[in-house]
Amino acid sequence: MSIPVSIDTQEITDLSVAVLAANEVLCRGTESVLGSLPAVRAVHRCDGPDALVRFVAEHTVDFLLVAAADAHWLDAVRDRLSGVKVLVLIDESAAPDQFGDAPVPIDGFLSQHDLSAHSLWDGLRRCARGELPMPSAFARDLLARAETPASAQRMRTAKLTSRETEALTLLVMGLSNKQIARRLAISSHGAKRLVGSIMLKLNSPNRTTAAVNAVRAGIVEGL
């Protein structure tokens, strides 16, 4: 039975969401909470990559929520997730750098510990608006890692793709995601994913910190 949730769903509606997790309690719990959101039309629970492949082959999926422990499964479905926004459900042990080289771009992070109807809705809403939602503790961890003595060296050797380097240069110039998209002739969502990947690789919880860290590490010149 759906639990009424008092939230404003005017921004996005009629969502189809898939949940990928081996932990049945986490998977069923997330499915249940998602089902209580008025903006969510359908939720499908997948206990492995094969189940997800079968589902996305026959249905449109707007969001995929994947447990951090099972994020390696994304490699098996990377070619099937075009246009799907990916949110990772992290626990207290999750480290930001473990997602820097994820097989697919990550669109945001949600805390398993604080999972609720409101936190799920806030994550979906912010992600749809082009933001990169993440728990405050995760963001603080990113900042702490960026401030360690070895951080600049790690960032200098960060494996940025040529496209990410182009986007980073434009980011340092102060361009918005939409402006970056126009300059690179890609979609706004594609630009947002590039920026999100850059933020993770540079241990940066936001665009401003990513730009500062990039200049500080000598990856790009200040403009």
From TrEMBL:
GO molecular function, one term: DNA binding
Record SMART domains: HTH_LUXR
Cited InterPro entries: Sig_transdc_resp-reg_C-effctor, Tscrpt_reg_LuxR_C
Keywords: DNA-binding, Transcription, Transcription regulation
Domain spans labelled HTH luxR-type: 153-218
PROSITE patterns: HTH_LUXR_2
Gene Ontology biological process terms in this record: regulation of DNA-templated transcription
Range of residues in the leader sequence: none
Statement: the UniProt record of this protein carries the keyword Nucleus: no
Coiled-coil ranges from the UniProt annotation: none
Source domain of life: Bacteria
This protein's name: Two-component system nitrate/nitrite response regulator NarL
Top-level taxonomy: Bacteria, Bacillati, Actinomycetota, Actinomycetes, Pseudonocardiales
